[in-house]
Design brief:
Number of helices: 9
Oligomer: single chain
Number of strands: 4
Shape: globular
Structural class: alpha+beta
């Protein structure tokens, strides 16, 4: 066995799933081949705090990205090292630890179908006819604000809610910066140096703002860490 060959492994935590969903959308924004596969994916999982979907076969395996996904196939080296396959069924069986499948009769299914249809349409794609939708088990509606009862049961409810909001904000700011960098590079290649300079300055200002948001996130985490001591 070659220890330098990275093998496919199923995720072990909900945080890993969230990270994969973020990476999935980065891959889409970067225009990778994943875009062409959107209508092929059947089982989609929705993360409310990110307001984003991810397909089972992608998000159910550790540290996924478009390159590692490799069109959903194992490399020869992975086969030789007996890596598990990228199997949507196995992935979904792991993901249902945190998610539940929605029946087509549920109002939530209809609401999420509308969202995923709108999402896919931005890439000129349609949902697969065998579409299955999944939602976190503890979520009863798309209005996922923490209630008073939940706060009493979970003293970390407010802390987690704010951390999720900041995490989502950071994710969206990073996306804006990537888009600005791409626009700036395009302007530079077109010899539009004045426009490229303006975009670069804008990106720099937003990067400084991103740093402040990250500092706020750390300060918020430190507050609750002190309380738990």
């Amino acid at each position: 066995m070659n220890n330098n060959v990275r093998l496919f492994e199923l995720v072990d935590s909900f945080e890993e799933v969230k990270s994969n969903v973020k990476q999935f959308h980065k891959d889409l924004e970067n225009g990778t081949y994943i875009v062409d596969k959107l209508s092929q994916f059947k089982e989609w999982f929705y993360i409310p705090e990110l307001d984003a979907f991810g397909p089972s076969k992608y998000i159910g395996f550790k540290q996924m990205n478009a390159v590692f996904y490799n069109n959903g196939r194992r490399t020869e080296e992975q086969k030789q090292n007996k890596s598990i396959r990228l199997n949507g069924g196995a992935s979904t069986n792991r993901l249902v630890k945190w998610f539940r499948e929605l029946s087509r009769e549920e109002l939530l299914f209809k609401q999420l179908y509308s969202k995923i249809d709108s999402f896919l349409s931005t890439y000129n794609k349609k949902p697969n006819k065998a579409l299955q939708l999944y939602l976190p088990k503890n979520l009863k509606s798309l209005d996922h604000e923490i209630t008073g009862d939940q706060i009493k049961k979970n003293c970390k409810g407010i802390e987690n809610d704010v951390m999720v909001t900041l995490d989502t904000l950071i994710f969206k700011i990073e996306r804006i910066i990537r888009n600005l960098n791409e626009d700036g590079s395009a302007a530079f290649q077109e010899n539009n140096y004045e426009q490229a300079q303006k975009i670069a300055e804008n990106a720099q200002e937003i990067t400084l703002f991103l740093r402040k948001v990250r500092e706020l996130q750390k300060e918020w985490a430190d507050i609750f860490e002190k309380e738990s001591v």
